Amino acid sequence: MTKVIKNGTIVTADLTYKADVLIDSGKIIEIGPNLKGDEEIDATGCYVMPGGIDPHTHLEMPFMGTYSSDDFESGTRAALAGGTTMVVDFALPAPGEGLLEALKRWDNKSTRAHCDYSFHMAITWWSEQVFNEMKQVTERGINTFKHFMAYKGALMVNDDELYSSFKRCAELGAIPLVHAENGDVVAELSAKLLADGNNGPEGHAYSRPPQVEGEATNRAIMIADMAGVPLYVVHTSCEESHEAIRRAKMQGKRVWGEPLIQHLTLDESEYFDKDWDHAARRVMSPPFRNKQHQDSLWAGLASGSLSVVATDHCAFSTEQKRYGVGDFTKIPNGTGGLEDRMPMLWTYGVETGRITMNEFVAVTSTNIAKILNVYPKKGAVLVGADADLVVWDPEATKTISAETQQSAIDYNVFEGKEVKGLPRYTLSRGVVAWADGKIQTPEGHGEFVARDPGMPVTKALSTWKELTAPRPVERSGIPATGV
Amino acid sequence: MTKVIKNGTIVTADLTYKADVLIDSGKIIEIGPNLKGDEEIDATGCYVMPGGIDPHTHLEMPFMGTYSSDDFESGTRAALAGGTTMVVDFALPAPGEGLLEALKRWDNKSTRAHCDYSFHMAITWWSEQVFNEMKQVTERGINTFKHFMAYKGALMVNDDELYSSFKRCAELGAIPLVHAENGDVVAELSAKLLADGNNGPEGHAYSRPPQVEGEATNRAIMIADMAGVPLYVVHTSCEESHEAIRRAKMQGKRVWGEPLIQHLTLDESEYFDKDWDHAARRVMSPPFRNKQHQDSLWAGLASGSLSVVATDHCAFSTEQKRYGVGDFTKIPNGTGGLEDRMPMLWTYGVETGRITMNEFVAVTSTNIAKILNVYPKKGAVLVGADADLVVWDPEATKTISAETQQSAIDYNVFEGKEVKGLPRYTLSRGVVAWADGKIQTPEGHGEFVARDPGMPVTKALSTWKELTAPRPVERSGIPATGV
Amino acid sequence: MTKVIKNGTIVTADLTYKADVLIDSGKIIEIGPNLKGDEEIDATGCYVMPGGIDPHTHLEMPFMGTYSSDDFESGTRAALAGGTTMVVDFALPAPGEGLLEALKRWDNKSTRAHCDYSFHMAITWWSEQVFNEMKQVTERGINTFKHFMAYKGALMVNDDELYSSFKRCAELGAIPLVHAENGDVVAELSAKLLADGNNGPEGHAYSRPPQVEGEATNRAIMIADMAGVPLYVVHTSCEESHEAIRRAKMQGKRVWGEPLIQHLTLDESEYFDKDWDHAARRVMSPPFRNKQHQDSLWAGLASGSLSVVATDHCAFSTEQKRYGVGDFTKIPNGTGGLEDRMPMLWTYGVETGRITMNEFVAVTSTNIAKILNVYPKKGAVLVGADADLVVWDPEATKTISAETQQSAIDYNVFEGKEVKGLPRYTLSRGVVAWADGKIQTPEGHGEFVARDPGMPVTKALSTWKELTAPRPVERSGIPATGV
Amino acid sequence: MTKVIKNGTIVTADLTYKADVLIDSGKIIEIGPNLKGDEEIDATGCYVMPGGIDPHTHLEMPFMGTYSSDDFESGTRAALAGGTTMVVDFALPAPGEGLLEALKRWDNKSTRAHCDYSFHMAITWWSEQVFNEMKQVTERGINTFKHFMAYKGALMVNDDELYSSFKRCAELGAIPLVHAENGDVVAELSAKLLADGNNGPEGHAYSRPPQVEGEATNRAIMIADMAGVPLYVVHTSCEESHEAIRRAKMQGKRVWGEPLIQHLTLDESEYFDKDWDHAARRVMSPPFRNKQHQDSLWAGLASGSLSVVATDHCAFSTEQKRYGVGDFTKIPNGTGGLEDRMPMLWTYGVETGRITMNEFVAVTSTNIAKILNVYPKKGAVLVGADADLVVWDPEATKTISAETQQSAIDYNVFEGKEVKGLPRYTLSRGVVAWADGKIQTPEGHGEFVARDPGMPVTKALSTWKELTAPRPVERSGIPATGV
Ligand SMILES: [Zn+2]
Ligand SMILES: [Zn+2]
Ligand SMILES: [Zn+2]
Ligand SMILES: [Zn+2]
Ligand SMILES: [Zn+2]
Ligand SMILES: [Zn+2]
Ligand SMILES: [Zn+2]
Ligand SMILES: [Zn+2]
């Protein structure tokens, strides 16, 4: 049974044109005028775009004996409600745990997903076992490895471990990711703030100033350059980090930066709210920054020095947030955003003219599809591509509110924001998953998306590094001389 | 009668995949496996890419009572021989001449073209007539206006003229281009050099150091920002200019930079050659720079801070160059490059790993097609696009030489360079125009490509500028107060 | 009759130490412990510092048929009341007027000065006469030449005039100064704003955004570099201009920037005041900027990328400001500041820890004395130096108010600011000129300070430029070859 | 018995003027014309400048069971021969060794010094004992603490140790120094190079590219900023590190950079010499860089973004260097330079016009005297200052050669360089220590120079950091709200 999206305007990272889209067996089989199918989806007045890809989520993430509140069921439900059709979550081995073992746990959790998903594998410790299993992980369809430069004593790895893992990525044709904050300094600043009686949620922001993020970004870039591998910097939140990325790019280094929708639209004043809950609910790492940093991030999206807008969706309820009353370091780090990413970005980006519609598609979907090597299966409106599509109504409006959201938690950091531009329909592999304000697919519809290593950028960089590698000086009779 | 390109690998700015390409009536009508057509073109072992677009040529350009030696016939012949299927030339009104009048002259010259072409219109003086005719020019399919900040006393316009013309571009949805060198300073430096006895071709390079280019680029960017319009900087040759572009981009400004293949691969040492002819033949503006500037340009291509590789093809014979014996300011400015741009960029860029194949397509074709608003008619391998294609043999090699070139002149600035990667076939709107080392199409095959104003970037910028425009403070009883 | 300053702490750009200062015949004749003199000045609890030098004033400046309201009498009275013991004013030839003729007018006006003074000579047009008179001007003790890149149709000179004048400065060992704003663009923006009904004082700010200042600074730096001469940029008000200066310095260029006390402490919100008079009184060029720009300027003072704090004192009464009701371009440009510069800088700079006391002396006095080649006659506490001194009471406070100021005008842009740190005594060549809250010297006490060209920096730069000057390639038999 | 330096021109960081200098009991007691003393030193045709201060030496430094070959005797002899009158050496505790214990060892070694000296104390490990002894060390007259970010497994400290020590410096009013290279990455690169058969001296350069220095500099700056303390970066050798320093300064941070005379005048091609000995003798960390880095360093000296020229004098004989045949990591790191620093800088800096004579004095003596808080006892030509002076003959020339040098080793990295500008006399506390090409003072003449903490810059920074410290948000009833 075929399906056709009629009367819409297709908007991709490249193009804007009127055409219908014919779908069969989960794939786009034809694009053109006046197509016919067994079932019609009306896109009159709408844009038909590649479904969003959020490359940065933490669903049902283990934390202090509990879990982040949105799991693969509610999380992907929120995703689809907001036009996102694929999420990439982080498999996090406990220190000492094997990568494949951790992967098994993530495989189990993800069975409930409403939309397609993939995983990044985190490198949280280093050993010969980890080195060996990295290869097996790539064979399992994971070509990205995440590294934490913060969370000292837990997930953090140090510089020689980074180098070793990055080097291994280079061999495997995989791409390393970093959470870039200087964990040593964050720990010292946190201890000092607590000692000084700065224990409220604003202390979290004080303990992670832009400088510590900029420094770690700069360091990771250098290490990646030495290891001969591209680098993807998650949640780039500030000018300092963005500056390090731009500086690297101006030297021809291959680095991508990922601002979050939260950092683009919310600022540090949230932490100074008199209401502890309000502030604590916004606690995430890196914290929100000021307006100057926001301007920097928007400029990055327009100019291409930043590539992807993500959410770092990691939802904790108010109850969970209150673990940190009296000690901000115990407030679980994370906020929601999966449902709001695309409407917020459209409203604050496209409606204002800061970015074009095509750039919107690029930063919400196509760019990351290319980086992750799943383009054009995902991120494209092309014959042969998965029919992960969003029918976007640019005139639809709503006021964001926790009361009406999909997420399992009891608040929303964008509460009260008016957005213009919303999905009318979201399709996951050809199935209408979001329509009439409701999720239409059962849990478990989502499938794992395998991703091969060896992207063109990775290969080109290896060629260049080989060409310019250090060569020994030829000498005879060493040493050869007197004074 | 249909034509099919068989057994090749399609390489676009986005994608690399095996597929055949079916062509009818000058357009791509199908892309897929195992296609059949009336005529077969064998692409075994080859890449099938969008034909190159060179947005910067001067064919049969009037100069000191004569003309640049390559006209639309020999110039487009050279283009096709090198895989380029479209050129954009500059219509240059004499001071006082109307735009439409100048256009007529270019229309006449271009009737001999072997491949498709379009025009940029130059604004070489300012008046109400020029203001008015700019609109008519856009209606004639020209959405780009060129401005010379150098060539004082001839083509140069000053800052208020730039502002007025840029403002007019903003109204029309057109994009201004600049030749960015400070003409006043070039004139002063030239006079001083001649007075000091520095009259050889190296004096040309001394008279146009990177600083004067960087300054003018920076100035044009500011003026475009004030006028609320994007900017395209032609022949970005140096770090100073590239830096100004990067700085603009980091503030969210819409600016593109265009390095030339000459600046990417040749350096200033050419001007110090003991042979006057050798040096004079390399005289162009801006002049070749040193290796550090080359590294900067390559990094710009890899990182996206520079967008397009062009040639500024403007060929003068040795005889013409010798007009400047004893006075470098009389050496006609310009070099060839149309036939060599793509093989040189492939050899020094793709083969070395500095850029990927997809980036090669982007910077030789797709990016400029988008900027000029002719994508996907040009610059794409998509159903419905013009079949301007190149079948690229990555294993083919040759040594560049004037003896075997298409260009009408008697030397080649790349003489002796070994290139690897050459067109096996070049197709212009479905016609095989280059095969077996020979041009197959008659002159006059080329058609004018009309380009509409109002690109998405132009519109988005206007929206943002309107949103952030100065607003008057509301006051009553002005003035209202004492001390 | 000798005078001794007892019990104070000497603070110079270099040093902080307890010592007395013995003065005779207008000069410091001894520095040390327990000195004795005919007259004692008590400096207990105070710092004894070099008197301030304000290198940027416009006293009794002709304007639209009237004059700026503070003349050399009231202006230098204000200076002394604020600890400043020397001012440098600008001699402004009308277009077509000879330099020496203009100088005569300034000589006349300055006879009423209470403190020492010198002149910069403005180059407001270009001719052989100007070229020739520049030499005579230097022989008259003026080694600095000012150039306006704004005020189109009045004072503005264009790029080839800048180059010619800068080149002449290089020959004479003099230093060019620039008022850096793009006058063409300011004129265009002003016209557009007025046409759009933006005629209030805020329109002045809108018409001169940081970009137009940054651009002109960048351009002047390039031209100075080409001419082989250092450059002094007056009233550096923004990050854009400061960035251009830093970028030049990072290439070894000799450039100084001069922020004004107004730009360091007041911001653009002043122009949005509902009271027209309030806003109009703050109209000056460049206009006040936002807080980010202020941070940039303060960082420049601390790091040394900016060198001097001045005032651009050019006072117009409210009545004069009202010439511009209904048309901001008619509001006379200028504010006061002579009396407030040092207390404001101490309060916002030294008291906060942004700069040290020694840096305070450097930026208010010593640096400019060196740049202007009057060090150590001025700007020093050294034996042999002029006894231009301020006895600074760091505990004294006041609230700035027009009611108690020396300036002739009826308001003060710093009205209501609390300052801590004030002169107890100000000495001009050994004469106590300010004490007990009153001026003690008669008008006419001030003398012209002659300044020789040929500073060490100027000489070093000439040496380097000569060493690296373009050299012709030696060739025989030109042209020498075939293909 | 008094001594007078007659007929010279005094050159300081500020001033150039003709005057005689009268000396008694090791101090300057008068400066002026026509002075008389018991003994006359003829300075006709010469400049009389503050003696040089080299803040970076390693004399008799323990290494692999042996010691660097120049001890305090030969090292200070070389210093005086080159116009340097004070050295600052590094006391290096072994891991686990107390600071005071280490100091004792350095006290012992230094008894043989010919000129005055002081120490920096290195923090090579961290503990409560170290924390406590830092205070005692400052009481012993040492206000600077050195930290190694490289030499993993030996001297290197990690980020939290850096933070703790920097924080301690802030409390004590002391200044931290860093050797900035990423030790983890250097170790990894070294291992890889050796594994790849890159074992020659050029491997040393390959293992420490500019990136690893730039990264560490950037990191140290961030940590110092967080700890609220200024930072001094030793041996700044490259643009990457200089860029990090400039970027910090542009944000108002207090950071100084110290290029070495070697990096200013020698380049990486030395390591590619076919003679193993030649290359190995140049092995130091950081290694020599290319010409672009040299240009960056020179621009830093001219513009003030770099502050001090030092040597890192650490001399190893060819025999010692040969420990590393077959394994570059075993080549002792270090070169000489004490005798050559000032003549080389004069020749390549002052003679060329890159810096002025006054800037020469600033970067060889006065700036570091201020930073180290020994100004004006050292680094000045002022009454009351130590008579550490050099009578500099700008016309004297020589060819640098190991055969005629003071240093104990058998080669000189500047071998064959022609220098113009040499000390005629060097005076240490009024004693003629170098004259007629020979050392005149006995060993042991040198005295320890105590240096107090609490410099003005340190205090100002603390004030600012306190003013802008994080403040808790006042909240009642925490948590306070529902959704
Ligand atoms: Zn994270
Ligand atoms: Zn995360
Ligand atoms: Zn051009
Ligand atoms: Zn051109
Ligand atoms: Zn001005
Ligand atoms: Zn002024
Ligand atoms: Zn070191
Ligand atoms: Zn050292």
TrEMBL record, chains A, B, C, D:
It is an enzyme of class 3 (hydrolase). Residues 47-419 form the Amidohydrolase-related domain. Its EC number is 3.5.2.2. Its cofactor is Zn(2+). It comes from the Bacteria. The keyword GTP-binding does not apply. Keywords: Hydrolase, Metal-binding. Pfam families: Amidohydro_1. One of its GO terms (molecular function) is dihydropyrimidinase activity. CDD domains: D-HYD. Belongs to the metallo-dependent hydrolases superfamily. Hydantoinase/dihydropyrimidinase family. This is Dihydropyrimidinase. The lineage of its organism: Bacteria, Pseudomonadati, Pseudomonadota, Alphaproteobacteria, Rhodobacterales. The gene is hydA.
